[in-house]
Specification:
Elements lengths: L27 E5 L6 H4 L4 E2 L4 E4 L6 E3 L11 E5 L3 E2 L6 E6 L2 E3 L12 H7 L3 E3 L1
Parallel strand pairs: 8-9
Antiparallel strand pairs: 1-7, 2-6, 3-4, 3-5, 5-7
């Protein structure tokens, strides 16, 4: 038994990018392919922030960061990561995907991946204002 003292730091979830509560009660659980994310870009603080646009990797069915220039399925925006997700190593992670709702573009996190092409792909499911 290990009874040593440990310190854990928790941050406050920043969902200021949400434009309404619509869709937040119906997020879908997906699996993130951590190897598809770049630490320096997507999780320099040890977590992938909520509001990052995700795309589905066709070969594996896992999700990675949306990239309009990719050719592995991630070039199609699937939705937004709803919760910030801590990355511990390289293990794939379960995470909630916001597939419909309202988003405030100016409040999305830096390097969220959102662009005009993602807006077109998400139209009808996600209202971006």
């Amino acid at each position: 038994m290990d009874i040593s003292v440990r310190t854990t730091t928790y941050g406050v979830e920043n969902r200021s990018w949400l434009g309404s509560a619509h869709g937040t009660e119906a997020t879908r659980t997906v699996t993130l392919d951590v190897s598809a994310f770049t630490e320096a870009t997507h999780y320099p603080d040890g977590f992938i922030p909520s509001g990052v646009v995700l795309g589905r990797i066709t070969a594996s069915g896992l999700y990675g960061p949306y990239d309009n220039a990719a050719a592995d399925g991630r070039q199609t925006a699937a939705g937004f990561l709803f919760n910030s997700t801590t990355v511990n190593g390289t293990a794939d992670l379960g995470a909630p995907l916001l597939e419909h709702g309202m988003v405030i573009e100016d409040k999305l996190p830096a390097d969220s991946g959102y662009d005009a092409a993602a807006g077109v792909e998400l139209a009808g499911r996600i209202v971006v204002r």
